[in-house]
Amino acid sequence: MAKIQSIISEVIKDSRGEDTISVAVGLDNGMSGTVAIPQGKSTGAHEAKYVDPEKAVENIKNIIEPELRGFGTSNQEGLDKRLMGLDGTENKGKLGANAILGVSLAYARSSALAENIQLWEYFRKVLGKSGRPDKVPRIFVNVINGGLHAENNLDFQEYLIIPVSKSTKESLDTAYKIIKQTEVMLEQSGKEIRKGDEGGFAPDFYDNFEPFEVLSQAIRELKLEGKIDFGLDAAANGVDIPESELHDIYDQMKQNYGLWYLEDPFSENDFEKFAKLQERLGKDVVVTGDDLTVTNIERINEAKGHESITGVIIKPNQIGTVSESIYAIRQAKDLGWTVVVSHRSGETMDDFIADLAYGSGADGLKAGSPTQKERLIKYKRLVEIENAQ
Asked: What is the pTM of this model?
């Protein structure tokens, strides 16, 4: 069995040009696994806590590496428990969720290399599964940005297209066509073509419905009717609209545009409001928790107790370790929910979430707009995994 020989971290830049960290776990067999850690802007209050990237690097060097040097590979739960024990807080605020996740993920990548398996296969083993899953995740593509991720007048954060196809390559090609057609239509209407944090178009609009009008027209002109589902990440922690008005808006989006996926329609502690909306919209709309659940089994179980949602977002940096992320996926799947593995607004050129989405048998991969290189690499990795069958 290979053992950890070194853990090296450094400060790098994310897609917004802000500081984050990379971590490399080197093994005594000469192999090394490296990861780059993303970070969010619209973060939930219940997420695990980051520390300053310089501090995270210091914590890895001075506290984590001395403790884990000599630890054997392919014991993900054991390693993650050691990391959490070193931190000793409920929210990973001492060492930092960025430091802990960096080591946890780099260890996973090193362990996969040591076993001569793909990272998705390693994640699958941690989940207690073997072989390929029976499906490929659908891609949730951000075409229009608003909210905290854009400098425009839209209240809501992400207007998503979700192609209906069993092929990731075909879905990605379809997404590109719609993105290009949308850009042409925005230019023709005289709107300024600028981008949000996740690569989606971010001009001003007449109201919160117009983005779906534009996308609907683009789909009609491309003769892609019936091949696209619509999604909305409302990110309602940052939305100042009364509850009754939000209910009406979501209802209209369902009726007029066939809204299928709705993420964080209310604030992060509004379990009962989520439940009321889920009942109102019915099971044909996947009401999904992100800030509500923050990849945390306790929050997931609380949402289940209120019957708040039928879908959940999984972001490893919300919880801070590989094993906790996979346990959250397992719990959500056991509940019969739609599981979507997601990127963050401050992304890196790391594609580990594609392996996590595929290996865990998730229903979706949400990675922003493929026009931004940090997002495209995730979709390309999913295509690569699919093509290797």
From this structure: 0.96
